[in-house]
Every structure is written in structure tokens, then in C-alpha cells.
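My main concern about presentation is that the manuscript never shows what a single data entry looks like. An entry of this sort, consisting of the sequence and the corresponding C-alpha cells, reads as follows:
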Amino acid sequence: MTHAVVLGATGQIGRVAVAALARDGWAVTAVSRGGDRDARWPGDVRVVRADREDDGALSEAVGEGCDVLVDMVAYGERHARQLVSLAGRVGSAVVISSVSVYEDDKGRTFDTQGEPGGFPEYPVPITEAQRTIRPGDASYSTGKAALERELLAAGDRLPATLVRAGAIHGPYCRTPRELYFVKRNLDGRRRRVLAYGGASRFHPASVRNIAELIRLAAPRPGTRVLNAVDPDAPTVAEIASAIDAVMGVETEDVLMDGPPVDGVGETPWTTPAPVVCDMSAAEDQLGYRPVARYADTLPETVAFLEERLAGRDWREAYPKMATAYGDLFDYAAEDAWFERR
């Protein structure tokens, strides 16, 4: 039996990854700030309470060592160096990164999307060979790029698989994009406006598929970067329709040819150009095969969202979502737009 330490074990990906590794025969130490246990974990999963920002607590959680350290929350140079400092006690690492590190051929990134003409136009699909944003500490994307740079440079001391995840979905997400359509349906909104003809594509990534990639990478140490997305990349209109089907409602799509107007037509999935990733590298290097398709995971996601929203303001239920996206449900502006048509 081999030993895996999972940091961020009770987060969205961590819960599923711990279970996947335990089922695969690993002795798992699940590390989180709360020290909680997921009901789906086997009883022999060891639970440790520790904050990864505390170097001493992290070192103690690793103990005498482990074969692989799986890190769900690493970010920036400091966390990368913290991981490398454990080389000698840690055989290898699997670390979650993001597709937001990618930069298009004109230097546009997710960080420039708010500028006129600033949304990146990536090749379809994006491979791991696509250039990446300059590392730094100015944004989430630059921080993830800095994390990657440091770990890749230290590959001779600590082999690390960097997992570039797409639009992560599943229970326990703090910024669930599906919330937009679920809440609208719960509020009885039977018309929705979708910009760009409803054709926006932002490649989703199920926690189940990410966990499967982690499971395959864990016993195969190496210094590599791998995309992590679902086998399908549905359009925003297809996502909305799939959520309707799960909730048993019918909604009319009103399609805008161009961009949102004063926020009307905007959704958390809306992009002026597609963001679609290639999974060939994971398939070739690890024998990866997806274990879930987007539509098949929606019943669990929708049920989780409905339960969390019950009797609560959505901003209270999902404060990070409100911070990231602002007023997602400005129905008055939408109704006024319909009146002007």
C-alpha cells in the first residue's frame, strides 16, 4: 500500500479525489483546515486538521513522508517553494492549476477580457503547448503561472503533474456557473436572453474527471502539464437546456447576435470566443479516459444547488459568486430590454 496526502481534501475536487485514491488502494491522509470527513470516504482515510499556509503544520501533516502529495489549493511562488521544500519526504506531486494560464498569440488572456477586444482567441482545441501568461502576483492567472514555473523548474527534485482544469463543476463549488440557470428556473423566469447567439463555449471540467486524472497521475511520477476537461464542450444554450431538462421546465431562448447589452444576455458561461481544450496528452501519457459527461453530472449538481439555496438569498449561499459576477439576476433590466424590443 502506498501513501497519498491530499491538501484541500474537503474542497470541491478534494472530496472526490480522496475517495478515488482510497478506492484505488492508497492509504490516504486527508488534510483540510476544518479537519472534516466526507461521508463517502472509507473509514481508514486518516483525517488531519492543518492550514497549508502554516509551514510547520503542513510538514507535520506530511509526517515521515508520502509517495504522492496532491494539492488542490496551491497558488503562487510561495506555495510552489513550500512543496519543493518537502522534496525528499514527498515522492512526487499532483497540483491543480487552471486553463486561465493560457495566452493567445496576441498576448490576450482572461486578465484582458474586460478591455475592448481583449478576450483571447485561442486555437480550438487548446493544447498544453499553447503559450502561457507571464508569471506574477497580479491576478489569479499570473499566480497559477508562477506556481507552474517554480514547480516545473524544480522537477529534478520534486516531479510534479500540473493539472490545468477548465470550468470546474460539481457539488461544493463556491462559484457554480450552473447557479445562473438553476435560480432563474426556481424564480419562474421562462424566457432567457443569451448573447452571441447562445453559442459561447467554455469547456467544463467535472470533479469526477479531474479526480480520475489525479488517480492515474498519482502512481506515475513525472514533470508534466495536462489539461483537465470533460469529453464534451457544450454551448451555453445547450447547458441551459440540459439544466431545464433536469428541473422539468421549459424555457424560451431569446438569442442576441452580439455581446450582452447592459448586462442583459450575460451569463457565467458567456464568452465572445470559444475556450475548448484538448485531452490528447492525458490520454497518451496516462491512458486517461473520462468517467463522466457534463449532462450526466447535472442532477447531482442541481440538487446540491437547490438544497443550498432553499430559504436563503443567493448572495448569502454563494458570497464568492456574488463578488465575482455582481448582480447576476437583474430581472428589471431584462424586462425593460424586452419592452424595448
